[in-house]
Specification:
Layout: E1 6-10, H1 14-24, E2 30-34, H2 37-46, E3 51-55, H3 63-72, E4 81-85, H4 91-99, E5 104-107, H5 112-144, E6 149-151, E7 153-155, H6 157-182, H7 189-211
Parallel strand pairs: 1-2, 1-3, 3-4, 4-5
Antiparallel strand pairs: 6-7
Helix pairs in contact: 2-3, 5-6, 5-7, 6-7
Length: 227
């Protein structure tokens, strides 16, 4: 069973959280509420999230301050943040949002279809990265086991390599389709950059896997970094 991605919704007004849940429910992912910046930071201590939707204007710790805390933490600094705001103070206010680490800055009222489409892109990227980490873990198991590893029941090295290759091929196919989807002028620059980074990691993992095939030149393959 494929695990669902978690999306963090941060807004001090319950009606806004309810509206976001209604918009994003079609994505069939896990939606987590936070009614303040402090509550959001607490949720981020224990759970991994694909993307954060963060209201700018909140009492106490506002969206900018919350984002600053998120970006300072090593565990959470790479989570995409989409700012949502009812304030329109011009380009300077928007620039402050991007400077705080946001990948997008959307003014209310916003188009529900556009918001859902933007969020879905980051959910897909997150899921592909999760699949990539799984393949890397299996490959490390193969290397550390000296050619044998247990996946359910013990398998011969060639059988495990074939399974790894098939799983990786499926991820590569999905990543290629996602890159084509992002290959237009309207795509978010952050999403395009993340997709390119994912493809580079997939290429590195494929090379490492190919190096284990019978007849490949001797030498320890280098696994791609998971950062």
């Amino acid at each position: 069973m494929v695990q669902k991605a978690k999306i963090l919704l941060v807004d001090d007004r319950p009606e806004n959280l309810l509206a976001l849940e209604a918009i994003l429910s079609a994505l069939d992912q896990t939606l987590v509420r936070a009614s303040s910046g402090e509550e959001a930071l607490k949720a981020l201590l224990t759970d991994d999230f694909a993307v954060i939707l963060l209201d700018v204007q909140m009492p106490g710790m506002d969206g900018f301050e919350t984002a600053a805390h998120i970006k300072r933490r090593e565990r959470t600094r790479d989570i995409p943040i989409i700012f949502l705001t009812a304030i329109n103070h011009g380009p300077h206010h928007t620039f402050r949002g991007y400077a705080a680490g946001a990948v997008d800055y959307i003014s209310k009222p916003f188009d529900p279809w556009v918001l859902r489409a933007k969020v879905s892109v980051f959910v897909e990227l997150y899921m592909k990265n999760c699949q990539l980490r799984e393949q890397a873990a299996l490959l490390r198991l193969q290397l550390e086991g000296g050619g044998k590893a247990a996946v359910g029941e013990a398998q011969e090295p060639t059988g495990l390599l074939a399974e790894l290759s098939a799983r990786l091929a499926a991820v590569e196919e999905q990543a290629e389709a996602l890159s084509k989807q992002l290959d237009d002028d309207s795509a978010d620059a952050a999403a395009v950059a993340t997709a390119a980074h994912l493809e580079r990691k997939l290429t590195g993992l494929r090379r490492a896997l190919d190096a284990l095939e019978p007849g490949a030149e001797a030498g320890a393959p280098t696994l791609p970094s998971q950062n």
